[in-house]
Write a structure and sequence with these properties.
alpha+beta, 4 helices, globular
Length: 155
């Protein structure tokens, strides 16, 4: 899976990892409910999920402030549709607030599926300290939620 952060332009390839069944069950309960608040010590955060048979959108919040949006797909047939959606959000944001992107080049859709994109919103920079362990937690959540949604779509 390719995990692309639009703001930085950095993409990472994550190999498929087997998720512990208990973790998968916890994440699935969030997906089944369309999201929810995380337990302590991450109770400042919540997620809203929109999962379809072809892909996902995740919206992360700190309190009432949206801090990021993630969009991804495992469907080559629908990849362009998902890309068009997140690319529009990226340009809508950077047209108003160009400093939230420090990528050297405009983003481009990954050349293979599955892929997940993350767009960090201005609220993130006000609500989350860059050196906080919360950054790693949120980044890991993006990956884990995507993997569980993908597993559900395949079953």
């Amino acid at each position: 899976m390719v995990h692309l952060t639009l703001n930085s332009g950095k993409a990472r390839r994550n190999s498929r990892r087997a998720l512990p069944p208990k973790l998968g069950n916890v994440v699935r309960s969030f997906i089944d409910k369309g999201g929810g608040s995380f337990p302590f010590p991450y109770n400042a955060y919540r997620i809203e999920t929109d999962v379809t048979p072809t892909g996902v959108a995740f919206y992360f919040f700190s309190g009432d402030v949206q801090i990021s949006v993630c969009t991804g797909t495992w469907s080559a047939e629908f990849a362009q549709e998902y890309w068009t959606q997140i690319e529009k959000e990226y340009y809508d944001l950077t047209d108003v607030c160009p400093k939230v992107s420090w990528a050297k080049h405009p983003p481009k859709m990954p050349d293979s599926v599955p892929w997940l994109t993350s767009l960090i919103l201005p609220g993130f920079f006000f609500k989350v300290k860059s050196d906080s362990p919360d950054v790693e937690f949120l980044n890991t959540c993006e990956f884990v939620f995507f993997e569980v949604a993908h597993q559900l779509a395949r079953s």
